[in-house]
Amino acid sequence: MNILETKKLEKDYGGVRAVHNLSIEIPEGRITGLIGPNGSGKTTLINLLSGFSSPTHGTVTISGSERKTILPWENPIYGLTRTFQQIRLFEQMSVLDNLLVTLTERSPFASIFERHGKLHLIRAGEILKKVGLEEKKNIFAENLSYGQRKLLEIARIMAMNASIILLDEPFAGLFPEMVNQIAALIKEMRREGKTIVLVEHNMAIIRELCDHLVVMDAGELLAEGKPEEILSRPEVLEAYLGE
Amino acid sequence: MDYFFQIFTLAVIYAIPTIGLNLIMGRTKMLSLAQTSFLGVGAYAVAIFSGHFHINFFIAALLGIALSAVISFFLGIILSKLSEDYYFLGTLGFVMIFYNIVRNWDSFTGGAYGIAGIPRPEIFGFYINTVFFYFIFSLIVCGLVYWIALFLEKSSFGRVLNAIRDDEEALKIFGYKTHHYKLIVFVIGSSMASIAGSLFAGYITYIDPGPLFVSVLFWAMIIIGGLGSLRGAVLGAIIVTLLPEIFRFIGFPAAIAGDMRGLLYGLAIVLLMLVRPKGILGNYKV
Amino acid sequence: MGLLPQILANTLITASLYAIFTIGFNLLLGAVKFFNIAFGGAILAGGYGFFLLYKILNFPLAVAFAGGILLSSLFCLLSYHLIFAPLRARKSKNFVLLIASFGLLIVAQSLVAIFFSSSFQPLAKNLETLTYTLGGARFNIIQLVTFLVALTLSIITFATLKWSRFGKAVRAIKDDEEVAELSGINTKKIIGALFFVSGIFAGVGIILFGLDTGVDPSLGLTFILGIVAAVIVGGMGSITGGILGAVIIAFFQNLAIWQFSGDWRDVVVFSILIIVLIFRPQGLMGERAI
User: Fold this and answer.
1) What total number of domains does chain C contain?
2) The pTM is what?
3) Assembly ipTM
4) Which of A161, A183, A210 is the last residue of a domain?
């Protein structure tokens, strides 16, 4: 079952074709790796799927419904959430507050009269414990170490409880212990039935985690299929060696 | 003693739009110059409804708030698409339009001559017409506004505002329609300015389209006191109101008093941008 | 329709004035990418500098003219070295620069009001000036000079930008300051010079305007708003756009004066500003989307 589909997706930036004629299918409940050399359009694709960019042509279909104009705040409606390549946390807010924003009332009027109730704090506490940031909960995000920032990002993803999760290089720049920690959290998300799209350069992690692989090059689809099979294909290796 | 209360009453009245500006500018980074215009709306509402039509001061003030809310709502929507710099220019344009309309609409606003003889506020037959009582009255109103701002700050709403300040785009992913929040904040902040305007009119008993309307006074206050800090807003209001009084003691001629104050505000703004954009109590790093 | 030639003439004169201003303003905007509201302060510096030299100290016209322009240029140069360069050096966000420049305008406005009072001061000495009539429109020699100066300055600007080394450096900085710096251009010096040059335009414009009518402290703010409107309408950073915008703003301004009274003129300009900001923020020749 394909939960996410694109058909002939196109994104042009004034002459530069960042994404071209892209038709891919993302299987539900699996971890799909999105790989390709730098500049192949991976992050652009993530932006298109999450409404940070609008396609010049083509369609995006989520769970069978076609997303016409994708607005960023509609992501939760489609069960989608994402991270960013450059980690975007709320720097001058505490770890706890960073997490609470994902849990509290979205409507402005309701949020005026809501002080975080017991329920929110409990849930936030659970998640922080799971990622190991419980002791840091009152520290401002800008004072966290790099690895801790990545953990906070994942914590927010978990709090969103989305069904489709787009991760843009979650393992970049991490030490092996951290890589394993985050890999474990991602595996748990798959156990919970979530669909994950993972943009990564770390081939070892790709082999370990991914059930399905999509390879992009110069904005186009290069290959699609099972990791072991894809990663041994000559054109895929060439795309990477060529860069 | 009277002098002391006079100055402090003014400081307290001025603290109110500054608190409002703190919500608008300090939290959501919307560079709005329009507080002075909404102060004008509140002031003229009292002047016209209470002065001309003899409606009770408090009801006139409420009408002023309602009017400000409506105007700021539409202005907020119009300007909502604009990024920082253009937003600022948009509010500057609005300020000038408002100023010109008030000046030219003689029949309604008294034009350049303004409206005099505004009656003092009256509750159940008791007139607030001594400096001391007005000071207490203003203090109470200011306290109320402060409490409202604090309430907002401590709620989830306040947390969302902080997130908007830090990274509005990233916040949207989590399902927040940030433009709604910004609009509501703008309306609340502008309505607060209106309240101050009504107090001002009742205090001075005279309103005209003077330099106050195009003044950067509230910016100076919020910048000095500190962006993003509620206490900073109040502190800034007190400092900026009190400081020029020193000039009076040094003995500058009254004619240039207004311009001396303008000079002070301008210098304060420039110096603070250079030295400490955070302001004295500010907690938002620029 | 007897008034049409006069309206057109007035439009041309106002447009010439704003064109001079927008060239100076756009040169800066293109290079440093922020709205330097303090340009309004340079306008005041030039106008009142001339006033001081010509009407109070009685220097000859040419000397006072040069002096006024020097003052507005120095104002810009100093504002760069003392305020904007340090702020840019520490990578201050745009709105910090914007707020600082706004504060500086207020400082200039206040100083001018303190030392010269807020009253309107005509800059010309003899009240009679040569007037001409052409095709049903009347204008005086100052207005004619304004038009000619605008034309000349535009041509000089285009030529300089296109052919001179300075002009090429300016264009490189406008495209990408970092790259320009890396390719060996002393960006700080060039930008400093650019500030100085923009001050020249401010001074020239205000002195011509003042000789035709006069100056008062509020002009800094009033002109800046018109300049910003023209620049946004025409497209930010684009010299051609600024001139085009100047024509459009001038047209609507004069139309407003004709249809309503002069009092509503400013309302029209500011309304145009807001409308353009909403519907087409990149202006006509826009090179920069928001």
Assistant:
1) 1
2) 0.85
3) 0.87
4) A161
